[in-house]
Design brief:
298 residues; alpha/beta; Rossmann fold; two-stranded antiparallel sheet; 14 helices; globular
Length: 298
């Protein structure tokens, strides 16, 4: 039986996909081939996922046997990991990890909560799973919570990091927790990777290919995006007809046609959110001993 000895636990839309891909390239690191198995967050599977073309459904969680099978490919790697951003959000995930993998190392990536919220919103907008404006979606969060929407739609709530991070600080030795700021990962990914590799006790001199993954963009046309570019059944049929290389070459230029850079957040709304997050950021600063003043002042 093999289990991970480190986990990337969040936050969502803070660079975890990029970090997962950087780590997966290291010869001394094994990453679960399935990103976000969410084994320690079963609450995720009691909520509804909203599909690109309007219907909703529940996803199925993994059994213990299925989770362990994700690590069957481990050979002589030193660091064995997985990445599930829901582990930061759900209250009991940290305790479950501690009970199952008591000596696990924990990686937490944090991003300005306003930018994180807007990125999460744009991610769903891009994939046809959001139809409201950002401001309207924030107002609807309590309603969506009552209707058991999945955590990805809790744009505002996901950014109250203090309690989320503190759950890990209460359970794990602090030298087993590494906090990474999205700003650093975005601006100097090589230096951050070296720090993470050192934290995981693997060769810190390894330099991965550092392209950024899973970037949130804005669809140029919501209807066309929803019913054509994000239509899974249509994409599946096209993939079955084309070789993998041809499909990749075909889809990449299409993204440039379908998507453009996202619009900025309205200044008034940004100011409201900044005020909303202020106290939580101040508490988080003291907890993790990091300067987060740029999250407050911007």
């Amino acid at each position: 039986m093999t289990l991970p000895n480190f986990l990337i636990v969040g936050a969502a839309k803070a660079g975890t996909t990029s970090l997962y891909q950087y780590l997966a390239q290291h010869p001394q690191v094994y990453m679960s081939p399935r990103k976000e198995p969410r084994y320690f967050a079963p609450e995720y599977y009691t909520t509804f996922y909203h599909h690109a073309i309007g219907n909703l459904y529940r996803e199925k969680g993994l059994s213990r046997q299925e989770y362990e099978a994700l690590f069957d490919g481990v050979t002589n790697e030193i660091a064995i990991g997985e990445a599930s951003t829901e582990y930061l959000f759900f209250e009991k995930s940290a305790e479950r990890i501690k009970q199952t993998i008591p000596d696990a190392r924990i990686l937490i990536v944090l991003r300005d909560p306003i930018e994180r919220a807007f990125s999460a919103y744009c991610f769903h907008l891009r994939d046809g799973r959001e139809t409201l404006s950002f401001e309207e979606a924030l107002v609807q969060e309590p309603v969506r919570a009552e209707q058991h929407w999945q955590v990805g739609w809790f744009y505002k709530q996901g950014g109250f990091y203090y309690e989320q991070v503190n759950r890990y600080y209460k359970l794990f030795e602090h030298d087993k927790i590494k906090i990474i700021l999205w700003d650093d990962l975005n601006q100097n990914p090589q230096a951050v990777c070296a720090e993470v590799f050192d934290f995981l006790a693997v060769d810190p001199g390894f330099v991965p290919e550092l392209s950024r993954a899973n970037k949130s963009l804005k669809p140029r046309n919501l209807t066309l995006n929803r019913y054509v570019f994000k239509n899974r059944s249509l994409k599946k049929r096209i993939r079955s007809l084309l070789p993998t290389e041809t499909y990749a070459a075909f889809s990449k230029p299409l993204k440039k046609i379908f998507y453009t850079q996202k619009d900025p957040i309205q200044p008034q709304l940004k100011a409201q959110l900044r005020n909303c997050y202020h106290d939580d950021i101040c508490k988080l600063e003291r907890l993790i001993s990091r300067d987060l003043s740029h999250w407050i002042k911007e």
